[in-house]
Amino acid sequence: MRKGKFIFFRLPSLIVFGLFLLVFCVPSPVLAKMKEIRVWGGTAADHKDGKGRKWYGAQKDKQDWGGWVKQLPQTASAQGTPLTDDADKLRKKHGYDEELFFHVSWAANPATVKYEFKTGKGVFDVTYMVREHWSPNNRGYDIIIEGDIVEELYVTPGRSEIDIMTYEGIEVKDGELDFECIGNPKTGKGDLNPMFSALEVLGQAGTAVGSAGKLTATWGTIKQGFR
Fold first, then answer.
1. Which stretches in the chain have pLDDT values below 70?
2. What pLDDT does 206 receive?
3. CB of 167 within 8 A of CB of 150?
4. Residue 225 and residue 221: Cα distance in Å, rounded?
5. Residues 119 and 12 in one domain
């Protein structure tokens, strides 16, 4: 009889524990909705790559994933002109389709290329990709993520060459990741029009800002119910 009472009075605590697992251990739509965002420049059309990943067309604003800010970027295409052998090897090494380097989204200096990504809070790795075609080794700008210059005095590569650069550990506290390219005359280059071919934003697992403290506090409360 005492054993039955013991189980009965523990049932509310077990129910609370189950709710805890459901709410905090299963990714919520808010935290998980945009852990991966991929966009490719120079087009509004979406693209499904060889690995089945979706790349949103960058020539859009106010999308579920985010979009351009302040000014719609201009577009340019190098489709039909093959990458150099080294560039092709580089993009294959990183696992990206050649199509991602067909087009660019760009801005005429002093205008900037600016995007807002609805990532949710957390820590993210951002990969910047660009293919040069028009101003080989002669285009200079800064790359800014979340207000910090992550690549100062950047100069694009040679004709039909590409750059793939990843910036790790970008912390987002307000739920939106800001990206911007700004022409910089200090590069000494004749073309200060910033651009990109593709952008990839990937959330680092288990890094939602503030979640660890909330989990600890809640787990401490639940444990009280089992005493």
1. 1-34, 206-227
2. 65
3. yes
4. 7
5. no
* Judgement on whether residues 54 and 66 belong to the same structural domain of the protein: yes
Return the number of other C-beta atoms located less than 10 Å from residue 54's C-beta.
13
CA pair distance 99, 111, nearest whole angstrom? 26
The answer to whether 150 and 143 have CB atoms below 8 angstroms apart is yes
**Beta-carbon count within 10 A of 8 CB:** 9
Residue 18 shares a structural domain with residue 113: no
Identify whether residues 143 and 82 lie together within a single domain.
yes
User: Can you tell me which residue has the tokens 């809640």?
Assistant: 218
pLDDT value for 227: 38
Domain count, the chain: 2
pLDDT of residue 27: 47
- Are 21 and 34 found together in one domain? no
Peptide bond into 157 cis (omega under 30): no
| 51 Cβ contact list (under 8 Å, min separation 6) | 95
Do 16 and 34 reside in the same domain of the chain? Answer: no
Bridge-based pairing of strands 36-40 and 54-57 is parallel
Expressed as residue numbers, the domain containing 16 is: 2-26+211-224
Q: For residue range 205-221, what is the model confidence (pLDDT) as tens digits?
A: 766 544 333 332 223 33
Structure-token match 């805890």, residue found: 20
